[in-house]
Design brief:
Elements (H helix, E strand, L loop, with lengths): L1 H23 L6 H22 L8
Helix pairs in contact: 1-2
């Protein structure tokens, strides 16, 4: 469980960093690159949720 939480936190941290960098720094140099970064950041959360819930037993 701990490993999944760490993986989820890392993935969501990367997502946040990508969004922030894309729209504060990168857009000044290349708008298409900022859009690509934002799209990649939008794809990360569903995979982070899958990783966080991997092999979770429905019985509690």
């Amino acid at each position: 469980m701990r490993r999944r939480k760490v993986a989820y936190g890392i993935m969501m941290g990367v997502c946040l960093v990508l969004f922030v960098l894309a729209w504060t720094v990168v857009w000044r140099f290349s708008v298409p690159a900022a859009v690509v970064m934002a799209v990649v950041a939008m794809v990360i959360p569903p995979f982070a949720a899958i990783v966080a819930n991997w092999n979770v037993d429905g019985r509690r």
